[in-house]
Every structure is written in C-alpha cells, then in structure tokens.
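## Example pair
The file below holds two records. Each record gives the amino-acid sequence first, followed by its structure token line.
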Amino acid sequence: MGLQVLIIQLSFVAVLSALLLNKYGNWRIQHKIVTLSTFIGWYLSFIIIFVLPLDVGITFYEKCISEQMNSNQSTLTCDQPNGMVDNDVLYDLWRIVYWTSQLLTWIVLPIMQKYSTAADFTACRKLKSAILNNAIYYTSYLVIFVLCLLYALSKGLTLNWEHLRVLTTTASNSWGLFLLVVLLGYGLIEVPRKMWLISDPKYRLNKLYFSLSNIRAGKNEAEETTKEVYKEARDALELLKNDFDTRENIAEIVSKFKKDLIREIDAVKSNADYSHGGIQIDNLDIIRNITYLVCVDLTIFYLIICI
C-alpha cells in the first residue's frame, strides 16, 4: 500500500511538472533537450517537496519504535505514517534525485546557458565556446576538490571510488556553503533595506523616473547601433554574393533582425540616414574571418535584448 501511495505521488508530481512546463514554456517550438532538462529539474524539485514529509514521518516512526524497544515496552504505541515504504526505496530515490541534480547543476544547465548565447555558427563551435565560458566556473570547483583531496591524503585516506565520490560531494557542498556565506550578508541587509525603500512611494517614483530616462536613452542608442549593424551585414551579404560558405553565415545573421525593424530601415531612401560609427566594410578578408562574423552575431544578440 505504501509503495502505491509513493507511485501516485511521483505520478502527480510528473503531471504537475508537465502542466507547468506547458504553461510557462512552448515545448512545440523549443528544443527537445531544453524541454527535457527543464522537466527533469522541476520534477526533481517537486519530488523533494512532496516526498520529504513522508521521509520525515518514517524517520520519526522508526525512532519511536527504537526508543520503545530499548525501554522494553510490551506494546508499541507508535503511529505508522500513511505511505510507509522500505528505507531502501527512499534511499535509492534520494540517490537518483541527488546525483541527477548534481549533473544538471554542474554540467548540463551551465553549458546549455552558454550554448544558447554563443554566437558561433555550428553546434561544435557553440559547444566549445560554452565549455570555455564555463572554465572559471569549473576551475573554482576543481580547486575546492583538489584542496579536499590534499586534506584527505594528508590524513592517510586511501583513494578508491567510494572515497572519490564522497570527496566530490564534499567539494560540491563546500562550494554551495561558500556561496551561501558570501551572499548571506546581502540577503540579510540589502534585501530588507531595498524592500523598506520601495515601500516609500516618493522614493520609488523618483527611482522609476531616473531608471526610465536611462532605459530610454539606452534603447535609442541600441536602435541606432542596430541600424548600423544591419546595414553593415546587408553590405557584407551583397559583397560576398559569390562566396557561398561565408554568405550562408551572414544570411543567418541578417535573419535574426526583427521584420518591423527591417521594414523601417528599408524605408529609408538615402544612405545618409544611416550613421557610420561601426566597422567599415572595405576588406573582404576581414568579412570572411569567422571571428568578425561571431562578433557581429554576438553584438546583434545583445542589441535585440536591449531593444
């Protein structure tokens, strides 16, 4: 009976995660890997919320039985929780949740985030850029792991698979505790202070006026820069009409501009309406350089966000 209750809980959590993913995402057009990773992340998080009370209840029940048996009581008065299952079942479940979360947190999600913002034109190049961008992130974790390893070796610990797994867990938890300590001061001081100031209507209104002015100026600047980059990309596309390899990459760059912005730019009759603060396209070797194309693509990505 207890195992059936657990299966019902896990099924309910899966349905809940799928419904939320359908509400806040668009699984019909987004990549399947993104959908799967998001679903697994939400599913594991909800498992902790729904299954942890059962685990706590079973723990207190077993503690109650142990205390009564040690006191040599003839009758057991402990209330068995609903959904009682064997400890091995929950142990295996928590192991799956923990190590899957570790894989998502340290490898899959960071690489996916950087992969989505990489401006390269092939999957291999994007993956390489994502790994390089996460190098600092992984290096910090590696330093903590090496320190834990050296400390363990200094205490005479022998290395085997079980000990390495414990060291990996220790390094991961140490990194999390380090971030918690670093951010704790901000959370205890700055967040309440910010909430206190936001409660003042006059302060909030003045801050919004100031922010609106900066946002408006940044938006206008981004629009002008976008027009320059678009004209530059169109000129490059025209100059390289016979270079099919490079032309394909530039065509991909041009396709990222919004249609309404393209109509606005194409409506301009004279090139004098464009400002020429960007790179002048007078060297075909520069245009064919993949580094130049990646820089242009990355510039467009951030400009679209600003607009």
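Second record, same layout:
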Amino acid sequence: MRTLYCFMFLICFVMTTGCSDSDIAKYDDEDVAAIVRGEEITVGDLRFLFLDDQILKSLDGTIKAKLAEQEVKRLNIDVSQELQEIQEMKHDIGIYPPEDVDTEFAEGIREFAET
C-alpha cells in the first residue's frame, strides 16, 4: 500500500513539474493527465471541472477525490441514502426541521441550533 502511495505521489510530482511551465491549452481533451489505480483522468475531465488556468492547481485534489471514490467502491459503502437525504433537505437548509423528521441531517441542524 505504501508503494502505491509513493508511486502516486511520484506521478503527481512529475505531472506538476512537467506541466508547470507549459500551457495546458496545447493538450487535447483525450490526453491523460493522471492514472489513479488504473483509472485515467484525462485533460478533458479536468477541463469539464476547472478553467484551464486552474487545472494544474486542482490536479492533486482531483486525484484525491478519485482515490476516495475508488475506496468507497472497494469497501462497498452505499452513500446513496445519505445523498438522497441531503438532496431532500437542501431546500430546507435555512428552516428548522420539524420534530417528526428524525434523519441524521435534521438531528444535526437541531443540535447546531441548540448550541
């Protein structure tokens, strides 16, 4: 596992160093910016998320997000219920939840409001 992290750090370092003085605009969308545990992150993926001048600064965070995504899949963690609760409560963020709502999100809002 340590070897994997060292390898990924090396890839990030090489990508950051190799691309730091270059203009990202000269790369095609299909060009690979990073490979994380066998999954490619392309320049096009990064352009979808960030402006060209922010891509190099955001590459490390994108790699960490991909690692987290892969780890969630590897551990078979289902976050869909939590995401659904957040989406349902998103429009009510400024509203104190009723007492009959006993989701973790609602409990968190009540606890925060009472402190």
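Notes on the second record: The longest strand covers residues 32-36. DSSP finds five helices and two strands in the chain.
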